[in-house]
Amino acid sequence: MSIFGFDPRVERHLIADEGEVIIDEVRKHWAATVGPMLEMAAAIPVLLLLAWLPSGAYWLPLFLALFLVLHGMWRMLAVQMDRFVVTNMRVFRVHGILSQRIATMPIARILDISVYKPLIGRVFGYGHFIFESAAQDQGLREIRFVGSPNERGATIQRVIQRSGLRGPARAARPAPTDFDPNETAEMPWWRAG
């Protein structure tokens, strides 16, 4: 669902001729809109100030209420236009309203993904991704308000595994069992005593 018809249209940024496909398109969790909604709701008490102010100062609460509503709507639109995309080749983030910013990280450069879930995020089902990559400075470090972060993290790990960048998981080698404590006479010197 897009607000006022605004949509970042992430499919425009795919490298289709190389076979890139979207695995997961992540919208911000609804908890990211709580701050902007509270800001817009704050316009109501500001308008109630009209009853106590002198008649010549009516413009001040009206201007302040209008500002709170417009700024809250702008922030809501910014949340709507912020997308995190996992493809079979890379992860990228598209955000911005009038001008768009795109940050990309190839799957091969992802070294580690940390998931931070604050207490309120654990209750409502969101968390924040923190990417560690081989690069010192990167444009894609933290993705905030990711819904179902455990499942999304597993999806990224599956994409990394399927890309063949990391070898298959191996079972630990069992310890050699050729040592018999009763045969001390033929025991090598490094195993003795």
TrEMBL record:
Keywords: Membrane, Transmembrane, Transmembrane helix
Protein name: Membrane protein YdbS with pleckstrin-like domain
YdbS-like PH domain sequence ranges: 83-146
Top-rank lineage group of the source organism: Bacteria
One Pfam assignment: bPH_2
Transmembrane parts of this sequence: 30-52, 58-74
Spans annotated as Disordered: 163-193
Compositional bias segments (type: Low complexity): 166-176
